[in-house]
Amino acid sequence: MKLKLLPPDSKVWAPRQWLSCALPFTIFIFMLLFYLTREKLNLFSQVEPGLKSGELHCLGPDKLPGQMVRPFRKSLTTEGDLQLPQFLDGWRKLVMLLDPLGTLFTFATQEASEKLSVLESYSQGPYSTHYHTFSAMADWEQDPSKHSSGLHTLVLLHRALHWAQLCLGGIARVQNANVGALCREAYQSVLGPHHTWLIRQAANLAFLAFPGQSQILELVCPGDSEQEAQEALSRVAGMLEAVYNRTQGLLAERGLLT
């Protein structure tokens, strides 16, 4: 007896044929989704050239706040000391940052520029080897036979740095801040006691014409959102505070705080 093979029933084979076609297609779709997801992640993880991962745009190497933060950070590389060339470089960038922000900032930066020129003349003069670090300068100038004023000049810059740190930190931290009142309070606490009555009155008038918070944030980080600018300014103020604290400790150890 011969068995007769029946032709395959299309209803029976159709699911198998569909499965055999669908499996490669499904694999292709998964591979495509994986590729697109990876490309999207790569796109989001890219940072502007020169920026470190997680670094704010405003703190990049081609932006003034970033150019200021870097030398100040380098000035702290030696534990228990202050690298003066990097400190002065950071201060020069700080002057450039503050100068466009208003009349009182301009007054403060002009005064700071004069002090910076004094210290730079020492660090580039015949006794430059004694002006590479705070400790070397202090050892050199505390010799009674020396008459240089590097330490006194540094104390004046130290106070101005503290005022800038408090003022910028407040602008970064306080929402809808009254910038004039905030920076006036910092001035009265830090710089005012060391100024004449006439200078204090002029400063109080200048605070009345201070630019608003939004304007300052735009000047510091042009093109960035207010939130990003505040975060960048907060980090700037944090670096100034670190430099201030290091210098404060060094001056206190030498009995140079007045």
From TrEMBL:
One of its GO terms (cellular component) is membrane. The keyword Disulfide bond does not apply. Keywords: Membrane, Transmembrane, Transmembrane helix. Residues 83-221 form the Glycolipid transfer protein domain. The keyword Transmembrane helix applies. One of its GO terms (molecular function) is ceramide 1-phosphate binding. It comes from the Eukaryota. InterPro entries: GLTP_sf (IPR036497), Glycolipid_transfer_prot_dom (IPR014830). GO terms for biological process: negative regulation of interleukin-1 beta production. The chain crosses the membrane at residues 17-36. PANTHER family: GLYCOLIPID TRANSFER PROTEIN DOMAIN-CONTAINING PROTEIN 2 (PTHR10219:SF19), GLYCOLIPID TRANSFER PROTEIN-RELATED (PTHR10219). Belongs to the GLTP family. This is Glycolipid transfer protein domain-containing protein 2. It comes from Phascolarctos cinereus. The lineage of its organism: Eukaryota, Metazoa, Chordata, Craniata, Vertebrata.
